[in-house]
Amino acid sequence: MVAPDVLARRLLSLNEALSQLEQRAPKLTAEALATDAMLEAAVERWLQVAIEACVDCAFHIVAEHGLPPPETARAAFEELARAGVIDAALAQKLGRAVGMRNVLVHDYTRVDRALLASAVRDDLGDLRAFGAKIAKLLPPG
Length: 141
Description:
The protein has one domain (4-135): Four Helix Bundle (Hemerythrin (Met), subunit A) (Up-down Bundle), CATH 1.20.120. Helix content is 75%, strand content 0%. The chain is globular and about 45 Å long. It is mainly alpha-helical and 141 residues long.
């Protein structure tokens, strides 16, 4: 059984982060990030929060379903695909998002601003799609 309160809190964090990013996405460029350190830091943080919320949900669902424990966040999404919770294409996209999160957290001095801007402009839909799938696991009400 999926613990609704755990998933609901993560989904709230995901939605808040995505809302913040989506407000800025249309005009976000590498140049804008390079000239505004506060914007760059905020975008990095909101993207990290969004991806982490998805990762937390994935690990929670894997555990709650008694699936084999994954060794990595990428593997958690792959396990959800094997279990039919999400499709394989989404799992692959979310695995790439985990790679972005790893750069943001562990190799933050080498963040490619063009790649960061592109991820915010073009890839937030994958995170939102995952959130929508997970929301369907919550009981109504």
